[in-house]
Amino acid sequence: MNWLLLLEQILNGFQLGLLLFLLAAGLTLVFGIMDMVNLAHGSLYMMGAYFCATFTGWTGSFLIGALLTLPAVFLLGVVVEIIALRTLYARDHLDQVMATFGLILFFNEATRLIWGPIGLVIPLPEFLNQTVEIIPGAPYPAFRLAIILVGFLVAGLLYLIVSRTKLGMLIRAGASNRDMIGALGINIRLLFTLVFGLGAALAGLAGLMAGPILSVEIGMGESILILTLVVIVIGGIGSIKGAFIAAILIGLIDTVGRSFLPEILDLVLPSQTAATAAPAISSMMIYLLMALVLAIKPQGLFPPKGVGR
Amino acid sequence: MNLSPRLLINAALLIFLAVLPFLTDWAGDSFYTGLVARILILAIAALSLNLLIGYGGMVSFGHAAFIGVGAYVVGIGAFHAFEDGIDWMLNGYIQLVIALLGSAFIALIIGAISLRTRGVYFIMITMAFSQMLYFTAVGVETYGADDGLSIYSRSDMLGLIDLNDEKSLYYLIFVSLLVVLYLMHRLVGSAFGNVIRGSKSNEARMRAIGFSPYKYRLTAFVIAGAIAGYAGFLMANLNDFVSPDVMHWTRSGDLIIMILLGGMASLFGPLYGALAFLMLEEILSSIPLTIGGLRVGEYWQLIFGPLLILIVLYARNGVDSFLPGARKNT
User: Is residue A206 included in any domain, yes or no?
Assistant: First the structure.
């Protein structure tokens, strides 16, 4: 086994995991507090990437582009919430799934109309576009390292907001009993809008960081949305802690699994079978994990307390 | 039997579908027979899903997987018959039995695990399972992986029906639809159907009077899966092609849209929904209007997306609520 490769893949796993966490945190809050299934969360991620590509093009600097993107996606989230989603909170999940499915279609088509069908490239500044040797002998891209740092930073910040501030207190109260905080005189509508905007900004942040390493294209939101849904379901809907642990878990399993499963399968299966089975099994692994978790704990690993569903 | 206006409209639709191939013959354009055949197959799948969603309250988001299972049985059979000369694998009856049993068996496994969960978790876990099957199909190089399988010869029904004849295939699909409609009608009205519907509206009460909803739900899940597998069998024969795309989660979303467009918890709803869905696609994508050099029809989803939201918000029971005698507050 190649230890340097393993180490590199573990870093990649963390990087994917933290991106997933940024998406999952917003989604699980919306799920937990408003009891709302939002399939269009991936579209906000896509908009983050497209906005950043555009702003970077205008200003010539990735950092300024990124800083402009965050409030832009926040505003977009707020607008979407006010226009389309607000009336859906009281509806059942089926309605929410369908309406937000409609939003996905709209966003994809609008993006194709505005930016065209061909994907965009986000150019990185010099200092991010190089490799650093954190472990001797294993150069690692600086930008991926930056994603990991930003991811941990935001996770920490989010933890502080949720556990130490008044807004966080309301969010936690909303997740465990949303009718009660309404009865206590809290402006729930405003709280919901804020939380949705915050979730949108986090999704946008994930999108603008994923843009340079994956590619900025239509439909990029859907593939990661499914992964994100897997994360929050494994973590327990409404739990930020669960989302964090599940996101890292999924990130590691997906990346490390993809690069090492062929070798592992080779040990137990005839090599011909292993070679054909490995790609299919490695893309199935996270779904297998999710099925396993739900079969044992139908409410996910960390179900938030007091959620009566 | 009293002939309500609603019954007359439904009957008129069925009669129209029955004579459609002759109408298109007469008009000299057989394109629409193929389109409607595709709609009817999707209607069969949507009808089976509606047993779960509309009557049972089980929002399964992975129903397209079973269509894929049925379709791949035909595709793999034709592949081996063509490549390796194994003739029995082209036998339509054998393919049909394997498609039904295979999709029922997979539905049994998926249902047994998924039905332990509720609400959003159920939506997500059924989607996860369908993605697993999707990635399995993507991963198997022998059967075309991403690119799919071309089916060089349709199922051989041993001279009883010639599936290569478009009209015969259409009528097989049409009669299948009638059978599935009748089956659903009987099923929903039966004691079994009452338990399924009762478990949707009040599970605790269902338990209190001595029914364990799990077994009934699982049975419904397996029945729905097998019917969707049958739809897949028909679809592979109609398209002469099968690819992992039939199982993608957005295809499952399409099926739910059809049910929603047509109106849940009504027998004919999914049929109207499938018609409305594909007709909307045809109509919206051929809007001839051009604004600023852009053809509006090319961006039809820009209209379809918000339309979907409006339907969800304001026309809760879809087409069904526009028909006379619609039930209120369902």
Answer: yes
Which of B75, B73, B53, B74 is closest to B62 using CA atoms?
B53
pLDDT band at residue A207 using 50, 70 and 90 as cut-offs: very high
Q: Which residue type occupies B290?
A: T
Q: What pLDDT does A307 receive?
A: 47
Cβ–Cβ gap A94/B118 under 8 Å: no
pTM: 0.87
pLDDT in tens, B31-90: 788 889 999 999 999 999 999 998 998 999 999 999 999 999 999 998 988 888 887 888
CA–CA dist A252, A262 (Å, integer): 16
Backbone φ and ψ of B325, nearest 5°: 80, 25
Task: Please report which helix (H) or strand (E) contains residue A175, including its range.
Answer: helix A166-176
What letter would DSSP give residue A120?
B
- Residues in A touching B61 (Cβ below 8 Å): 97
CA distance A116 to A95: 30
Q: Residues of A with CB below 8 A from B294's CB?
A: 113
CB A19 within 8 A of CB A209: yes
Instruction: Please give the tally of structural domains in chain A.
Output: 1
User: Is residue A301 less than 8 Å (CB to CB) from chain B?
Assistant: no
Q: Is residue A22 scored above 80 in pLDDT?
A: yes
- Residue A120 burial (CB count, 10 A): 17
Q: Please report, for chain B, the start and end positions of each structural domain, with discontinuous segments joined by +.
A: 31-262
In a domain, A297, yes or no: no
C-beta of residue B240 within 8 angstroms of C-beta of residue B150:
yes
pLDDT class of A51 with cuts at 50, 70, 90? very high
What is the rounded average pLDDT of the residues B321-326?
70
Structure tokens at A21: 């966490």
Residue A37 lies in a domain: yes
Write out pLDDT tens, residues B157-167.
887 788 888 88
**Which sign does the torsion angle of CA B304, B124, A215, A79 carry?**
positive
CA-CA distance, B144 to B148, in Å (whole number)?
5
Selected residue with higher pLDDT from A38 and B224: B224
Q: How confident is the model at residue A169 (pLDDT cuts 50, 70, 90)?
A: confident
* pLDDT tens digits, B12-24: 889 988 888 888 8
Q: How does residue A309 score in pLDDT terms, banded at 50, 70 and 90?
A: very low
A99 contacts chain B (CB < 8 A): yes
Full residue range of the structural domain in which residue A180 is found = 13-217
| Among A272, A201, A230, A164, CA closest to A44 | A201
Expressed in angstroms, the distance from the first to the final Cα of chain B is: 24
Q: What pLDDT sits at residue A34?
A: 79
Amino acid (one-letter) located at B120:
V
CA distance A130 to chain B (A): 34
Is A229 inside a domain boundary? no
SS3 (DSSP) at A263: helix
Residue among B61, B121, B301 minimizing CB distance to A294: B121
How far apart CA A108 and CA B260 sit, in angstroms, is 22
pLDDT band (50, 70, 90) for residue A285: confident
> What element of type H or E holds B66?
helix B64-83
> Maximum CA pair distance of chain B?
66
CA distance to B38, B120, B271, B297, per residue, from B180 (Å): 16, 29, 11, 34
